[in-house]
Give the backbone structure.
Amino acid sequence: MARPRTFDEAQVLRAVREQFWSKGYAATSMDDLMQATGLGKGSLYGAFGDKHQLFLKVFDAYCVNSVESVKKALEGPDAGALERLRQYLLGAATASAAQANRRGCLLARGTAELAARDGAVAERALKTFQGLEATFVRCLEQAQAHGDVAPQVDPRKWGAMLLAVFRGLEAVGKAGMDEPTLRGMVETALGALPVSAKRRR
Amino acid sequence: MARPRTFDEAQVLRAVREQFWSKGYAATSMDDLMQATGLGKGSLYGAFGDKHQLFLKVFDAYCVNSVESVKKALEGPDAGALERLRQYLLGAATASAAQANRRGCLLARGTAELAARDGAVAERALKTFQGLEATFVRCLEQAQAHGDVAPQVDPRKWGAMLLAVFRGLEAVGKAGMDEPTLRGMVETALGALPVSAKRRR
């Protein structure tokens, strides 16, 4: 019979995530994870598996949460869809410029370190990027349905392009690019989105 | 008197770069570097310094080369500037989608792993991103001078936006995003760039 778990699983996984996020996968040892969580090797292995399984568990949760939080930020009536998208991306630009976010997002960091040789990580990263893209596409479709975006705009093409801008912000923000430049990238991209003739009037 | 160097410095640094690029900084030990270069610890230390100094040396060279190669790809008369920019970014999209490039670019990888806690890396990465941005801006200025880009376009704003797209391509490409989607991001971004009235006719 398995011993009852005498720890808070969510709290342990948060500590594991912080460790991987700050130090990276390779630089994190099982000893680091034991120290960060206060658990012995046996408890960690028994509950979550090895270091790779632990990483995938927190990476998975981070990826799912990333898509969910963008969906939540963008959900609402067609009427404000374009403005919600704009505010979301501007917020991402500001966040990316913050010194506290200098370590970047765990999705970007894990992908940069592991995707080339770890199919499980690459697969989850791709699915996450596609989930973010689909969320942008849906929001653009709503904006188009409301008449804020011109009928000739292909929401799928623009959703993909905005995904590139969104991930680019993250990439250059963690090198220390300043906030006005990052916000300007969003303003320029959305300023180029063709609007409906009736909105221009 | 220093012993004469009996190795090819460029070849050694290539081996060092490949090692850091494939495995990352933390996962690379001095033993790995000795094995990759065929040199003893004393020779490596004597010629280049410690692991951090070795990393900075290859990261620096990679960054300088990145900006130089973009400059070279974009240089030319005003007449073809916009088309050169388009071809360069489409080429970057194709390269980013290639399986062989799945490890991503060393600039992105090094920044993701180290910028948060290594000021020397962050400083070089930022300078590189700004160098790439300035190169795009210059190319857009040429295109505008030639009349391919509308006078109301601010080349600085568009140069920054295209930097975001360029780095975003790299970020999602290494997760396995397909080539048509990546090339489509470039086409959508440049398709939204306002062109001169005389070109539209």
About this structure: Chain A is about 70% helix and 0% strand. Chain A touches chain B through 50 residues (CB under 8 Å).
